[in-house]
């Protein structure tokens, strides 16, 4: 018996499986709840090192028997003690077994160079905490459409030369506005100031 790893395998509508990595218990519970509300199977771990162990990428021969592990998405905090979310992202993207799985980085800090560094290294998206249900809905859509397509469409439509940056008001965005859209609008307003 493998336990939770094989808990639900409905053939009519396969459940999306998300690995959520965060050192904060509260943040782990928030992302877990939002993902479960969105009908995802969620596995949570409290560190980048634990995530590597779960994925069998820690070099331990005993944990490498997870070749049939089915994950659709990995969501990780950026700032964690030891192995950061950025380090975890790099290790996942170096792995032949897991490099195609979308990785989303979360952070409470909107630091543009950090965001760009993660996106360059292969992150699918970068979410500002607190993560909202709208963010999770976008992530689920991202999984359904396939890597890079959803984010690219969002960037293309929001960065067209014809759109006026000054017409966007971040204060008018409600709690359901995805954090990636809030970040883009905030950075445009900052650039115009």
From TrEMBL:
UniProt keyword Lyase present: no
Domain of life, per lineage: Eukaryota
A Gene Ontology term for the protein's cellular component: nucleus
Compartmental location: Nucleus
Extent of Low complexity compositional bias: 154-170
Keywords from the UniProt entry: Nucleus, Phosphoprotein, Transcription, Transcription regulation, Two-component regulatory system
InterPro entries hit by this protein: ARR-like, CheY-like_superfamily, Sig_transdc_resp-reg_receiver
Region (Disordered): 153-193
Any one GO BP annotation for this protein: cytokinin-activated signaling pathway
Residue ranges occupied by any Response regulatory domain in the UniProt entry: 17-144
In-chain residues carrying the UniProt-annotated modification 4-aspartylphosphate: 77
Full protein name: Two-component response regulator ARR15
